[in-house]
């Protein structure tokens, strides 16, 4: 090697050695208040996961912020921060690691003048009673003597993603920080719990399978939110492997979302191409979930990429269904757009490609809640659509069963419902009577006063029936001026009293004619008691008709009985 090249290599190696062993730039505590929450720290990724405190001094550290994310390739990472106290009195401070709840272990080393003065280790599998662990946050007390510099080395060993946050407080601010926090997460979880309860009520009301998938989606989402943002740690003081496995909810959540899409959009029946695409994505998620049952940490490493693929697939399928005119997918697209946008920020954040911010770090939670609210609206809207359809169907059935002029039941409905009422009377051993009624000389009313007045007379008759009938009575217009009434629970005496009341009420009423004069009509009525044990409703109506003909032959405006043909 030429001499000048050897000199250059020696120079660069000497510079690298100085850089690797250079001391960190210390933060001046005289310029800080009682809290440091956003400042520069240094980090080193231990790819071999085996370096100790002594060996780490020889490594070259890089700069980052005190709240950072380094993705999935930084399983074991060392962080370093130095603090200098130029004041006349010692400073007692507290190092807070608020995201400690999701790691495997935390080690803290306190150094002054290149000497290790104290250290602590926290294994999250045995941290519930650890003196440094407080509701998901590791709190390490340390001192910076007057005129000296204290360096802190933090070794963070995570399961999958290296999310890190380091804060420094004095005693007062430390207490405040530990008391507050997680209110926003509690609010998100509370909203989702309310949606789970609401959807449970809907399931009992409708028994639709999409309600089950939506409920499971909600439960998966709220478990992941509560776990990932520290609410479970804070509420239950639970950490380590047993709790980390709940991260499988990050995989079950898109599984249930896809199943929900298949059910609510009925892709199997109407959209086979989109259904196969969703099935493919579902199969990939199920395989990942199955693998996660054996190695959750490894299954979560590609979770960000898998989430990105899932968002692309579901969004593309939604666009396709929208273009094909599905009425509900436009609402789903609104909610899923929120989900995709906010989760997109989160995926990039988890991979360590963008700087931390509230939106980035909480993107998944925000996206889940916004989409969950939209899915709740879709379910409610679909129920409304189905109720509207049922209402229209009910209206069509009502129109098919009723006379359009009088709004009384028609002959077809009377015969069907009447047969059912005869069976009920037979089973209960009750009396049942039928009345056939005809308006006297109705053709003359139409000829003399016109059909408009004739229609008014018919509608007036219907009002009289409604006035004197009971809720259980069945009143129908058989056609023209003929009406039939079925009286459950009424024997001869009761049916005769009813018939007389109708006859007298009609006789007393009048309809104003075209010339202002009152148009009065009378009715003839035929009555018989139904032999429920032996005959049909049609046979009873025929006998009532014979009694009606007898009433007309006897001078009209009277009630006749089939068996006793006497008029009253």
UniProtKB/TrEMBL annotation:
<feature type="transmembrane region" description="Helical">
    <location>
        <begin position="277"/>
        <end position="297"/>
    </location>
</feature>
<feature type="transmembrane region" description="Helical">
    <location>
        <begin position="303"/>
        <end position="322"/>
    </location>
</feature>
<feature type="domain" description="GGDEF">
    <location>
        <begin position="430"/>
        <end position="564"/>
    </location>
</feature>
<keyword id="KW-0808">Transferase</keyword>
<keyword id="KW-1133">Transmembrane helix</keyword>
<dbReference type="InterPro" id="IPR043128">
    <property type="entry name" value="Rev_trsase/Diguanyl_cyclase"/>
</dbReference>
<feature type="transmembrane region" description="Helical">
    <location>
        <begin position="362"/>
        <end position="383"/>
    </location>
</feature>
<feature type="transmembrane region" description="Helical">
    <location>
        <begin position="329"/>
        <end position="350"/>
    </location>
</feature>
<dbReference type="Pfam" id="PF07695">
    <property type="entry name" value="7TMR-DISM_7TM"/>
</dbReference>
<feature type="transmembrane region" description="Helical">
    <location>
        <begin position="185"/>
        <end position="205"/>
    </location>
</feature>
<dbReference type="InterPro" id="IPR029787">
    <property type="entry name" value="Nucleotide_cyclase"/>
</dbReference>
<feature type="transmembrane region" description="Helical">
    <location>
        <begin position="244"/>
        <end position="265"/>
    </location>
</feature>
<keyword id="KW-0548">Nucleotidyltransferase</keyword>
<dbReference type="InterPro" id="IPR011623">
    <property type="entry name" value="7TMR_DISM_rcpt_extracell_dom1"/>
</dbReference>
<feature type="signal peptide">
    <location>
        <begin position="1"/>
        <end position="22"/>
    </location>
</feature>
<keyword id="KW-0732">Signal</keyword>
<feature type="transmembrane region" description="Helical">
    <location>
        <begin position="212"/>
        <end position="232"/>
    </location>
</feature>
<dbReference type="Pfam" id="PF07696">
    <property type="entry name" value="7TMR-DISMED2"/>
</dbReference>
<keyword id="KW-0812">Transmembrane</keyword>
<dbReference type="GO" id="GO:0052621">
    <property type="term" value="F:diguanylate cyclase activity"/>
</dbReference>
<dbReference type="InterPro" id="IPR050469">
    <property type="entry name" value="Diguanylate_Cyclase"/>
</dbReference>
<protein>
    <recommendedName>
        <fullName>diguanylate cyclase</fullName>
        <ecNumber>2.7.7.65</ecNumber>
    </recommendedName>
</protein>
<dbReference type="InterPro" id="IPR011622">
    <property type="entry name" value="7TMR_DISM_rcpt_extracell_dom2"/>
</dbReference>
<dbReference type="InterPro" id="IPR000160">
    <property type="entry name" value="GGDEF_dom"/>
</dbReference>
<keyword id="KW-0472">Membrane</keyword>
<dbReference type="Pfam" id="PF00990">
    <property type="entry name" value="GGDEF"/>
</dbReference>
């Amino acid at each position: 090697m030429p001499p000048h090249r050897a000199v250059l290599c020696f120079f660069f190696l000497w510079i690298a050695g100085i850089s690797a062993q250079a001391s960190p730039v210390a933060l001046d505590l005289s310029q800080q208040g009682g809290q440091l929450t956003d400042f520069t720290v240094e980090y080193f990724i231990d790819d071999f996961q085996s370096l100790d405190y002594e060996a780490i001094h020889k490594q070259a550290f890089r700069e980052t912020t005190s709240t950072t994310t380094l993705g999935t390739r930084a399983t074991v990472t060392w962080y370093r921060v130095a603090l200098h106290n130029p004041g006349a009195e010692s400073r007692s401070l507290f190092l807070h690691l608020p995201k400690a709840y999701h790691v495997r272990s935390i080690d803290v080393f306190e150094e002054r003048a290149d000497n290790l003065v104290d250290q602590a280790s926290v294994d999250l599998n045995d941290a519930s009673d650890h003196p440094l662990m407080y509701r998901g946050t590791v709190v390490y007390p340390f001192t910076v003597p007057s005129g000296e510099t204290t360096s802190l080395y933090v070794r963070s060993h995570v399961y999958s993603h290296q999310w890190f946050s380091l804060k420094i407080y004095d005693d007062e601010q430390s207490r405040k920080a530990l008391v507050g926090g997680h209110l926003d997460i509690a609010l998100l979880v509370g909203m989702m719990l309310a949606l789970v309860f609401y959807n449970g009520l809907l399931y009992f009301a409708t028994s639709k399978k999409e309600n089950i998938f939506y409920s499971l989606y909600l439960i998966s989402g709220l478990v992941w939110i509560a776990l990932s943002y520290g609410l479970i740690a804070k509420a239950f003081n639970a950490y380590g492997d047993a709790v980390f496995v709940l991260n499988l909810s990050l995989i079950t959540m898109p599984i249930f979302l896809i199943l929900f899409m298949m059910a609510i959009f009925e892709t199997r029946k109407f959209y086979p191409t989109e259904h196969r695409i969703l099935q493919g994505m579902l199969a990939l998620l199920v395989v990942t979930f199955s693998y996660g049952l054996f190695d959750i940490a490894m299954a979560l490493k590609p979770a960000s990429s898998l989430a990105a693929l899932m968002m692309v697939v579901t969004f593309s399928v939604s666009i396709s269904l929208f273009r094909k005119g599905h009425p509900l997918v436009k609402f789903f697209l609104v909610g899923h757009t929120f989900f995709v946008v906010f989760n997109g920020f989160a995926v990039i954040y988890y991979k360590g490609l963008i700087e931390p911010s509230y939106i980035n770090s909480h993107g998944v939670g925000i996206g889940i809640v916004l989409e969950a609210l939209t899915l709740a609206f879709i379910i409610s809207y679909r129920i409304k659509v189905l109720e509207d359809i049922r209402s229209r169907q009910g209206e069509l059935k009502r129109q098919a069963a009723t006379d359009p002029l009088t709004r009384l039941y028609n002959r077809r409905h009377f015969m069907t419902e009447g047969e059912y009422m005869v069976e009920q009377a037979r089973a209960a051993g009750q009396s049942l009577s039928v009345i056939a009624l005809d308006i006297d000389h109705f053709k003359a009313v139409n000829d003399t006063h016109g059909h408009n007045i004739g229609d008014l007379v018919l509608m007036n008759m219907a009002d009289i029936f409604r006035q004197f009938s009971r809720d259980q009575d069945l009143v129908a217009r058989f056609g023209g001026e003929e009406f039939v009434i079925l009286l459950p629970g009424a024997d001869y005496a009761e049916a005769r009293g009813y018939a007389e009341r109708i006859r007298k009420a009609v006789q007393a009423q009048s309809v104003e004619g075209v010339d202002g004069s009152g148009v009065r009509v009378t009715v003839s009525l035929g009555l018989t008691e139904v032999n429920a044990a032996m005959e049909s409703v049609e046979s009873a109506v025929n006998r009532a008709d014979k009694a009606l003909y007898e009433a007309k032959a006897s001078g009209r405006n009277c009630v006749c009985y089939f068996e006793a043909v006497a008029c009253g």
